[in-house]
């Protein structure tokens, strides 16, 4: 109630309205509602009803200032200062809510209604980009989808499911058994709940039934008011959007109602579909002026949409009845809308007059009566219908769509809505065509239609009751008609054919896809498809539609100029044919699988042939295709072919019963054959002037998604034609199409009138290859589906190893999803495992990440490799080569064949009996003549022939032998047949017998210049007996082909009914006399060969030996009995010839005898080659080329071996074990100075002051050290709200806390000496080990700067790649000139006492280091120091309270040294047990780095007063320290100092190079401090009793000889000293937490002390190793301490190792131990006087850091994805578009998110600076990939999650389950820790702070 009153108050000062409700009513809505409800529940409720109506009239009156708001700004003025137009709407909504609830609270009402919800369906509606699931195992319809919740609640284990991002939106199908199997329902929707839900009480929803009709009517009135017909030129989206924004609350209110569940939905359904309500409210006949106005607006809107309102007889001059019965053809329909070709009155001003042509010359569509009414009549009878109308008018606003879809779970509504949708289908198409946002609109349309049409039951019902199919086909036809143009195929002038224009937006933007996809969707239902296939009228119309695409996108070959503008229309053309023609075809085919469906096939084939005949007539086609043009689009041919194939394969139809006559077959074969020839032309570069796009077309035509709708049907159709036509005719047509007829002559020279010489070879190869494919492909001629799948898979695997997903993509499946070969189905996996082995992903440490691949099994290479299939399926020619190379490699490896093999010959599956005729091609004389001629030409070395030609010729011969007639006897009979008369080449047509037939003389026509002329003219004159020798010996090749064609033409003309037609004269240029060509004369060649003898000579030629062929059966008669011999399976040409001769001998005894005879004769030498000058030239050229090639190979090989040896010594990024360290400073005494090679100028020499040499280094800031944690178990990536990662326990945090604690209580300058920084943002220096002169480097940088090539690095920031090894670098570290002998002298141990050494150290430190004079070297030292400082951010350098204090620099410099040592320690695994030379040996630059740092540190002298060295080595008088305290903060007590830092400070303060004994001295002194610290920490850790016990035992031993080296004594002394202060007094609760529960034993104490000291010893040993080049000893972990301490010289050499090792024995006190300890303890005591707590905290240092690790990731990617992809951003609380998570610290960030941008830095970049000092590792949640940010560059690293087949799934496109790949993650972590991202990943790009 309060809410209502409040709302009323908001609407307070409303603008004056016509009749305001009485004030009382306004205030007390609830009371009114209750009163009305009571009145209505009485039996006689008329009075109540009237009262309610009156109230609603007032509240929901449509005279709102809404119209004003839509019209612009006056609205605000009109509303005065009042609440604006929105207030009234809000008020109305409040009223409605109150009335619905009938006086109760609205929330309670909602809850009450929900209780009656029989939720059997989920029905959740989602919009684009929502993540949903699809399970193919559970789906009945391919469009089935589930929301994430239903999916995870159902059981889909082991199913074939995937996750996907919805493109157009959708709805959850859970619970709908029409779309999915019930086994897949989730827990919530499994129960059929209708039974147990109580009946809805009448009075609950009573008010809704009264209020809602008015509310919806009010909404419709708003929509009517708001709509203004857009002006022709100005798009009115803005206005429409305004109206929609204002209506947002109303539509949302309706949406909320639908979410109340089933009970409310059924009320809404009643309201929306009730026709009486609609009539009463909207008729506009009342006296209400406002209603009238709105009705008028509605009629105007209808009219402007080109629609009639049937009752409104004034609008059109045609009565309703006449409209129904009018049988006018389309053009004849003259209404106000103009010709229907124009479709839409608003389209009338058609800009381009020429397009009208196609429209006027419209082929008559169908004169069925439906057309117009489908397109033009709309009558609305209910709210639902008008609501949909406005939804369409407003271009499908998302909210309305969601409301309409949310209602779908109501069955009654679903049916009503589907019918309404169908009724508006034509109108939807018109709106879509005009829309500016056609993409968005398409998505919304499909969002709706897919929900309606996926349901078979519903689709069937609508098809029967609403003529759905008629409507769809008609609408599609109309849609395409708007973009037709005249076809230019064949006869340009007189063509009557029209095709779609692929350049139109309609096709280019795929605007048609919603309609086509609906059509495909309904055709997938058997009941609907059957209706379609039975309806002859529909089939005719559909073929009409398909013929619009027949011959579209015609290509004309450019012969002179290169085409100016390459059109890309071919994308549109291929997409259109695939989507609009092929996919519906596959849909229909899927229902023609059984005998009973024969009738359907007959129908389709019949109308298809009719359409084809019309097409041939329309383009004026007779028998010759027009030259130089090709179209890849012949959908009618393909429909015909695919239905034929189905008929024979599945329906047992007799093929001949559905084939046309011979003449039609001849026409049918022409265009597909033209495409095959054009493919060869395109690959021969004959179309190069047409630009790249023509290659694109050739590739798309065979590409895996298109091939089975394009090239496969074409080849099949050609196979059918070939099997039924005369074989000689077919063969000669092929060679003629491929333009190589002229080449097929015995003469050595010829003239080709239609082809340039350079293209002849590849065209001949093309023609032969085509014949081989035609004769050996069995895809539609008898292979089963499984065999096809296997062949396809083998072909793809042979070209390359493939990943699982690319295989799925490359295997053409029938585009219709229901075809049976579903990706991932059982057969796919089983075939895959049968033919391929899985190669798990491998990791080359420095190389790229591999994916899991499948590779063919050995037996597949051995038996199944099929080059024909490979050639058919390759998009790129190089893949054929790749397959052959892999085959060669296999043969070499398995020892089957060493040389270069030829493609193997593969046995074929048997032909289906219907196609037996195809084999006649192999047994026709024309082919034999061609084969004979080619063999002869190859033998005689004529030009333009290649090995490939020979290979194909032999293949064809072998095919012929394999498929020869059974018996030889029958062949003899045919010889006497009529065939023989005109042909003197071969006696019969069987290849087996023709092979042995000798041909003696051939008459050829040659140019006069040819050598044959001179030679043979003489012969012919001398012996007239030539002709009598053998009258059948001479023949004319040319007349042969021409004769064939003429003959055949006659046959056709005789057989055709119009026998009186004259033969159309040939206009082909080929037969016209060549103009400028030299005269042809006739010569006669003496041949005297048969095919067999040619083969044997070829064998000799190929093997290069005379008499090389010896018939194998002479030795081993067995061979003839069991012919399958494995040795012939693989091999080269020689093997192939042997195999063929063996087969020929097997087939006939005669052949066998003749082969033996030929072999017996001593083979005459091959006739000498006549070489013309030109040929000689080419030969020389070839030879020269060959030599050059060999030379080049040699050079390359040499270069490669050089490079390899360089790589082995220098690069070797990843295998440190096996290489020779390239130590920079070699420690051999005889070398006087270190010598460096400059990799730029190649000179070597020492580094000098004037010309310094430098190391190529990469400086980078690193926070890896800061990520060490102290607990053992690694942190996990958070995947629930509870799991959070807090950085308190990281190394960086602990050090930060310590420093700030010190700075609170002690003097700043002293604090900065007591710790190290650089745990975060420390500078790490690494080198590749190559050196260069610094001046060379500068000029190198200059040249890089001027080089305009875009590098992956920025030269301005000093970045470059090492000129030698190309490793990334950004600075040069100068090498300090120094001789090694000197350093050897320094290393000699001296016998000075430790006291002397201490003095020396102090003196040396005391000398201020003057900066050396201004030399080049010192300048470089300075600049590199600047570089080091600039590498990290300021916040990681400045820790002092006074900014810019020198102490800051001092601290920073020694911390750089610390960072590098610590990192090297981590790279070695955290300890030095492995020993040996440094793994980074050759690449270590610590020595040089130390020189640079020392030089700079010595500029700051520490005041000797404050030098910690004195406190460590001298006893100081008491009073001094007391005085200091009063004035200022005290210095940091020595025991709080970090000893490692002290070490670095001491060493860097010394003049370099350092002497070994000084180094050891410093280490010894510091060890005493460290040990004392360990004792103090130990004493604090244990409890009071332990302390007193130790204090006591130690005190007893105090006076023994080695008291200073006994930890018990020292510990007891420490405890007694510290007890004087308050350190131990804070006993009590906090203390208990720190007490270790274990009692301390001497062993555990010793272990504690050793562990405390080890980190220091490790760093010191590393330092010693780098400074003095000593190797580190390797050891076991237990003895690491003792080994390192002796290596450092802490252990006296005479120390025996028998009894257990005691760390205290390493102590060597410079002053009496007890004195100095008490002095140190005193400092602590004086501090703990005031701050006991902090005092204790500072003493306990955590020294055992574990190695750094990235966060641990969960096994399954889905757990990460589900949590993070919905997680909101902490800054803007929206769900980010690209969420990412940092793998170092688990922070959730937005990639590229503008909401989180700070000063132009996006969040990821910012985080990479804060978390990793410029290095960030992020997992992109929506893509599953890892992205690395390094400074100003970034790169995609790859994914650490792989699917079950070892593949990444970038962008989650496939949506398969992904699992962590531990090896990859390890590699990533390794690269992070070793800072090698820059070196290993190659593809870097700048991110401009935008990530």
Summarize it.
By secondary structure, the chain is α+β, with helices and mostly antiparallel strands. The protein is built from 78 helices and 28 strands.
Describe the overall structure.
With 1891 residues, this protein is of the alpha+beta class. It contains 78 helices and 28 strands. It starts with a helix and ends in a 5-residue tail after the last strand. The N terminus is likely disordered.
Q: Report the mean per-residue pLDDT as an integer.
A: 78
What's the arrangement of strands in the largest beta sheet?
Answer: 22-21-23-24-25-28
Counting H and I runs of at least 4 residues, what is the number of helices? 78
Label the structural class.
alpha+beta
What is the alpha-carbon Rg in Å? Answer: 46 Å
The biggest sheet amounts to: 6 strands, antiparallel
**Distance from first to last alpha carbon:** 50 Å
Low-confidence stretches: 1-27, 62-85, 311-370, 816-824, 967-983, 1014-1040, 1056-1077, 1165-1172, 1210-1231, 1379-1386, 1519-1526, 1628-1637
Total strand segments: 28
Instruction: Assign an overall shape.
Output: flat
Strand content: 5-15%
Q: Into which percent range does the helicity of residues fall?
A: 40-55%
């Amino acid at each position: 109630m309060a809410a209502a009153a409040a709302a009323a108050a908001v609407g307070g000062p409303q603008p004056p309205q016509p009749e305001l409700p009485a004030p009382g009513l306004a205030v007390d809505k609830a009371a009114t509602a209750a009163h009305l409800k009571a009145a209505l529940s009485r039996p006689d409720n008329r009075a109540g009803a009237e009262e309610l109506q009156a109230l609603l009239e007032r509240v929901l009156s449509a005279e709102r200032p809404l119209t004003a708001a839509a019209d612009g700004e006056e609205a605000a003025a009109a509303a005065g200062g009042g609440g604006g137009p929105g207030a009234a709407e809000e008020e109305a909504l409040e009223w409605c809510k109150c009335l619905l609830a009938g006086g109760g609270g609205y929330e309670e009402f909602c809850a009450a209604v929900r209780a009656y919800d029989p939720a059997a369906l989920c029905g959740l509606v989602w919009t684009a980009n929502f993540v949903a699931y699809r399970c193919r195992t559970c789906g009945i319809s391919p469009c089935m989808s589930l929301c994430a919740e239903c999916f995870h609640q159902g059981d889909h284990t082991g199913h074939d499911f995937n996750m996907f991002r919805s493109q157009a939106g959708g709805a959850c199908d859970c619970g709908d058994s029409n779309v999915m199997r019930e086994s897949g329902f989730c827990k919530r929707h499994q129960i059929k709940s209708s039974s147990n839900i109580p009946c809805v009480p009448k009075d609950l929803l009573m008010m809704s039934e009264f209020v809602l009709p008015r509310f919806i009517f009010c909404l419709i009135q708003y929509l009517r008011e708001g709509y203004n017909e857009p002006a022709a030129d100005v798009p009115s989206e803005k206005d429409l959007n305004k109206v929609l924004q204002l209506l947002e609350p109303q539509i949302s209110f309706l949406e909320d109602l639908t979410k109340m569940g089933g009970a409310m939905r059924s009320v809404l359904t009643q309201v929306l579909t009730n026709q009486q309500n609609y009539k009463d409210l909207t008729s506009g006949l009342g006296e209400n002026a406002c209603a009238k106005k709105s009705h008028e607006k509605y009629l105007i809107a209808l009219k402007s949409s080109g629609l009639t309102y049937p009752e409104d007889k004034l609008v059109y001059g045609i009565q309703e009845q006449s409209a129904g019965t009018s049988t006018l053809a389309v053009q004849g329909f003259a209404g106000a809308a103009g010709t229907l070709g124009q479709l839409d009155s608003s389209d009338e001003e058609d800009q381009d007059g020429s397009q009208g042509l196609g429209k006027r010359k419209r082929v008559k569509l169908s004169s069925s009566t439906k057309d117009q009414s489908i397109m033009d009549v709309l009558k609305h009878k209910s709210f639902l219908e008008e609501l949909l109308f406005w939804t369409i008018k407003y271009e499908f606003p998302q909210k309305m769509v969601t409301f309409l879809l949310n209602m779908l779970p109501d069955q009654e509504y679903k049916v009503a809505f589907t019918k309404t949708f169908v009724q508006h289908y034509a109108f939807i198409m018109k709106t879509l065509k005009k829309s500016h946002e056609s993409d968005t609109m398409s998505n919304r349309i499909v969002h709706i239609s897919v929900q309606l049409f996926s349901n078979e039951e519903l689709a069937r019902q609508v098809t029967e009751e609403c003529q759905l199919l008629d409507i769809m086909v008609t609408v599609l036809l109309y849609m395409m008609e708007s973009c037709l143009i005249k076809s230019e195929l064949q006869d340009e002038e007189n063509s009557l054919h029209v095709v779609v224009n692929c350049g139109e937006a309609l096709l280019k933007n795929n605007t048609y896809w919603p309609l086509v996809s609906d059509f495909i969707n309904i055709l997938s239902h058997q009941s609907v498809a059957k209706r379609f296939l039975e309806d002859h009228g529909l089939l005719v119309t559909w073929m009409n539609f398909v013929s619009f695409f027949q011959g579209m996108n015609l290509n004309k070959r450019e012969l002179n100029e290169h085409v100016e503008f390459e059109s890309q229309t071919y994308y549109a053309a291929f997409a259109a044919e695939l989507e609009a023609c092929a996919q519906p075809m596959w849909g229909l085919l899927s229902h023609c699988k059984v005998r009973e469906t024969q009738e359907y096939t007959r129908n389709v084939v019949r109308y298809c042939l009719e359409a084809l005949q019309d097409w041939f007539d329309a383009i004026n086609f007779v028998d010759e295709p027009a030259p130089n043009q090709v179209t890849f689009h012949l959908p009618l041919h393909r429909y015909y072919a695919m239905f034929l194939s189905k008929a024979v394969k599945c329906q047992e139809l007799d093929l001949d019963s559905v084939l046309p006559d011979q003449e039609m077959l001849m026409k049918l074969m022409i265009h597909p054959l033209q495409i095959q020839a054009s493919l060869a032309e395109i690959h021969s570069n004959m179309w190069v002037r047409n630009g790249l796009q023509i290659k694109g077309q050739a590739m798309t035509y065979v590409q895996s998604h298109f091939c089975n709708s394009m090239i496969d049907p074409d080849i099949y159709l050609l196979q059918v034609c070939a099997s039924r036509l005369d074989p000689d005719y077919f063969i000669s047509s092929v060679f003629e199409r491929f333009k190589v007829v002229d080449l097929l002559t015995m003469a050595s020279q010829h003239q080709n009138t239609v082809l340039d010489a350079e293209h002849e070879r590849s065209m001949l190869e093309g023609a032969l290859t085509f014949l081989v494919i035609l004769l050996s492909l069995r895809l539609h001629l008898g292979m089963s589906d499984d065999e096809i799948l296997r062949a396809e898979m083998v072909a793809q695997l042979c070209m390359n190893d493939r990943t699982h997903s690319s295989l799925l993509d490359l295997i053409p499946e029938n585009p219709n999803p229901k075809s049976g070969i579903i990706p991932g189905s059982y057969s796919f996996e089983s075939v895959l495992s049968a033919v391929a082995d899985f190669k798990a992903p491998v990791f080359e440490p420095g190389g790229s990440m591999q994916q899991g691949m499948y590779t063919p099994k050995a037996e597949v290479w051995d038996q199944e490799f099929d080059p024909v299939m490979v050639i058919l399926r390759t998009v790129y020619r190089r893949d054929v080569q790749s397959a052959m190379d892999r085959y060669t490699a296999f043969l070499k490896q398995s020892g089957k064949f060493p040389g270069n093999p030829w493609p193997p010959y593969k046995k074929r599956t048997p032909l289906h009996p219907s196609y037996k005729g195809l084999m006649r091609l192999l047994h026709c004389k024309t082919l034999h003549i061609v084969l004979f001629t080619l063999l002869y030409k190859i033998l005689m070395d004529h030009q333009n022939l290649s090995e490939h030609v020979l290979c194909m010729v032999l293949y064809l011969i072998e095919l012929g032998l394999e498929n020869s007639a059974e018996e030889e006897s029958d062949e003899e009979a045919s010889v006497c047949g009529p065939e023989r008369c005109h042909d003197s080449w071969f006696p019969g047509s069987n290849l087996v017998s023709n092979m042995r037939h000798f041909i003696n003389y051939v008459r050829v026509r040659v140019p006069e210049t040819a050598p044959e002329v001179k030679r043979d003219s003489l012969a012919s004159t001398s012996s007239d007996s030539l002709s009598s020798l053998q009258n059948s010996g001479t023949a004319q090749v040319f007349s042969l082909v021409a004769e064939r064609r003429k003959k055949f033409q006659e046959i056709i003309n005789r057989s055709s009914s119009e026998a009186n037609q004259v033969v159309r004269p040939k206009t082909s240029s080929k037969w016209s006399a060549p103009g400028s060509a030299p005269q042809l004369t006739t010569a006669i060649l003496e041949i005297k060969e048969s095919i067999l003898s040619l083969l044997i000579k070829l064998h000799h030629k190929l093997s290069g030996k005379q008499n090389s062929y010896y018939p194998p059966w002479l030795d081993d008669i067995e061979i003839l009995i069991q012919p399958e011999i494995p040795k012939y399976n693989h091999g080269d040409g020689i093997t192939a010839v042997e195999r063929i001769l063996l087969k020929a001998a097997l087939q006939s005894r005669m052949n066998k005898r003749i082969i033996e005879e030929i072999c017996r004769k001593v083979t005459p030498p091959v006739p000498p080659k006549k070489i013309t000058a030109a040929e000689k030239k080419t030969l020389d050229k070839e030879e020269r080329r060959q030599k050059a090639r060999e030379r080049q190979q040699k050079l390359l090989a040499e270069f490669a071996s050089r490079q390899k040896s360089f790589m082995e010594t220098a690069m070797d990024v990843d295998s440190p074990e096996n290489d020779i360290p390239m130590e920079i400073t070699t420690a051999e005494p005889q070398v006087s100075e270190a010598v460096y090679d400059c990799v730029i100028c190649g000179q070597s020499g020492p580094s000098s002051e004037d010309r310094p040499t430098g190391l190529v280094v990469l400086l980078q800031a690193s926070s890896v050290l800061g990520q060490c944690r102290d607990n053992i178990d690694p942190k996990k990536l958070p995947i629930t709200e509870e799991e959070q990662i807090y950085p308190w326990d990281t190394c960086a945090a602990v050090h930060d806390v310590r420093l700030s604690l010190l700075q609170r209580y002690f003097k700043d300058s002293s604090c900065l000496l007591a710790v190290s920084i650089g745990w975060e943002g420390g500078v790490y220096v690494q080198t590749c080990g190559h050196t260069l002169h610094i001046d060379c480097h500068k000029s190198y940088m200059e040249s890089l700067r001027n080089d305009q090539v875009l590098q992956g690095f920025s030269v301005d920031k000093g970045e470059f790649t090492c000129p030698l090894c190309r490793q990334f670098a950004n600075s040069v570290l100068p090498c300090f000139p120094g001789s090694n002998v000197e350093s050897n002298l320094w290393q000699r141990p001296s016998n000075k006492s430790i006291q002397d050494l201490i003095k020396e150290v102090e003196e040396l430190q005391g000398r201020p280091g003057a900066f050396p004079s201004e030399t080049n070297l010192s300048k470089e030292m300075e600049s590199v120091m600047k570089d080091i400082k600039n590498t990290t951010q300021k916040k990681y350098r400045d820790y002092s309270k006074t900014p810019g204090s020198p102490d800051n620099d001092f601290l920073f410099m020694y911390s750089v040294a610390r960072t590098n040592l610590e990192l090297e320690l981590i790279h070695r695994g955290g300890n030095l047990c492995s020993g040996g030379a440094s793994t980074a040996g050759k690449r270590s630059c610590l020595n040089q780095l130390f020189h640079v740092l020392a030089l700079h540190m010595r500029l700051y002298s520490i005041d000797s007063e404050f030098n910690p060295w004195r406190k460590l080595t001298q006893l100081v008088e008491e009073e001094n320290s007391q005085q200091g305290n009063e004035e200022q903060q005290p210095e940091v007590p020595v025991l709080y100092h970090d000893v490692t830092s002290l070490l670095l400070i001491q060493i860097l303060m010394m003049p370099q190079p350092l002497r070994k004994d000084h180094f050891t001295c410093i280490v010894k002194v510091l060890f005493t401090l460290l040990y004392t610290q360990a004792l103090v920490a130990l004493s604090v850790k244990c409890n009071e009793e332990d302390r007193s016990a130790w204090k006591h035992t130690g005190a007893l031993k105090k006076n023994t000889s080695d008291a200073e080296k006994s930890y018990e004594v020292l510990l007891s002394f420490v405890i007694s000293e510290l007890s004087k202060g308050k350190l131990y007094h804070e006993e009590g609760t906090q203390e208990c937490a720190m007490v270790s529960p274990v009692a301390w034993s001497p062993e555990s104490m010793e272990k504690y002390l050793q562990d405390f000291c080890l980190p220091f010893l490790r760093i010191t040993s590393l330092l010693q190793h780098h400074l003095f080049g000593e190797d580190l000893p390797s050891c076991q972990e237990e003895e690491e301490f003792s080994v390192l301490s002796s290596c450092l010289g802490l252990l006296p050499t005479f120390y025996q190792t028998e009894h257990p090792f005691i760390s205290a024995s390493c102590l060597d006190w410079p002053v009496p131990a007890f004195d100095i300890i008490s002095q140190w303890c005193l400092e602590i005591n004086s501090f703990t006087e005031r701050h006991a707590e902090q005092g204790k905290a500072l003493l306990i240092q955590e020294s055992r850091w574990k190695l750094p690790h990235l966060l641990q990731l969960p096994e399954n990617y889905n757990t990460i994805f589900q949590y993070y992809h919905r997680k909101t951003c902490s800054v803007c609380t929206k769900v980010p578009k690209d969420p990412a998570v940092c793998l170092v610290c688990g922070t959730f960030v937005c990639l590229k998110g503008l909401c989180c941008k700070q000063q132009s830095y996006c969040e990821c970049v910012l985080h990479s600076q804060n978390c990793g000092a410029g290095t960030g590792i992020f997992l992109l949640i929506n893509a599953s990939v890892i992205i690395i940010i390094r400074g100003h560059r970034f790169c995609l690293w790859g994914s650490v999650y792989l699917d079950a087949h070892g593949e990444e799934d970038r962008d989650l496109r496939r949506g398969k389950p992904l699992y962590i790949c531990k090896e990859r993650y390890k590699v990533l972590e390794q690269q992070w820790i070793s800072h090698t991202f820059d070196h290993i990943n190659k593809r870097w790009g700048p991110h401009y702070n935008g990530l």
